[in-house]
Structures are given as C-alpha cells and as structure tokens.
Specification:
Largest sheet: 7 strands, mixed
Distance between the termini: 40 Å
Structural class: mainly beta
Shape: elongated
Strand content: over 45%
Helix content: under 10%
Number of helices: 0
Order of helices and strands: EEEEEEEEEEE
C-alpha cells in the first residue's frame, strides 16, 4: 500500500529554520500534485504550499517569501524549507499527495501521519 512518511519537525526558536521531508513509498505509478498542510490546535487544516508534477508552486499568503516547497521525483519525495519561522507557524504539518497506484491507476489522495513544528518566541 502507498505510504507517506514525514520527517524533520521539531522545536525551533523564532527566526530559525526547519526542513520537512515527505517520502512516498509503495506501488506508485505516478505522483501528481504534492503539498504540505498544517493544523494548529483548535484550527482547521490549511494549505501551506503545493507543487505540481511540472514544478508549479502555490503558497499560502502567510508563508510567501519564507517557505519553499520542492520535490525530487526520482525519490518520490517532497520538501518544505521553512525560514524565518514565527510562533504562529506552530502546528502539526501534514504531507499530501495525489497518487496513481498500481494496479488500479485511479488518482487518490494520500496523507502522512503528521509532524509537529513548534516555534518558541
């Protein structure tokens, strides 16, 4: 079965940086859009950034200029470089990907288990 596994979360001071990684595994045929979402306590899950298979990117206004999303198609991995972190960036960050998996080859949405990012002031 297809799995998404995130890594790279942790505790960082305001102004610091973290890099999140998310690796997909399993009977993958193709991966379309990959993205990062986050959910703070008491809040709804929100899109942080996404990247298409053609490397077109989209960012939430709150992270533009500070976060950079990228992907390595050879490794089926998506990254989120987070710089100039703020306390309001504190949340659980989830990886998401639209994947066509063998043998059915219908695009389906997959989620990682989440990784905690905490920014202290």
């Amino acid at each position: 079965q297809v799995r998404l596994v995130e890594s790279g979360g942790g505790l960082v001071q305001e102004g610091g940086s973290l890099r999140l990684s998310c690796a997909a595994s399993g009977p993958i045929f193709t991966i379309n859009t990959m993205g990062w979402y986050r959910q703070a306590p008491g809040e709804q899950r929100e899109l942080v950034a996404s990247i298409t298979s053609g490397d077109s990117t989209n960012y939430a206004d709150s992270v533009k200029g500070r976060f950079t999303i990228s992907r390595d198609n050879a490794k089926d991995t998506v990254y989120l470089q987070m710089n100039s972190l703020k306390p309001e960036d504190t949340a659980v960050y989830y990886c998401n990907a639209e994947i066509k998996a063998r043998p059915i080859l219908l695009p389906s949405n997959y989620w990682g288990q989440g990784t905690q990012v905490t920014v202290s002031s």
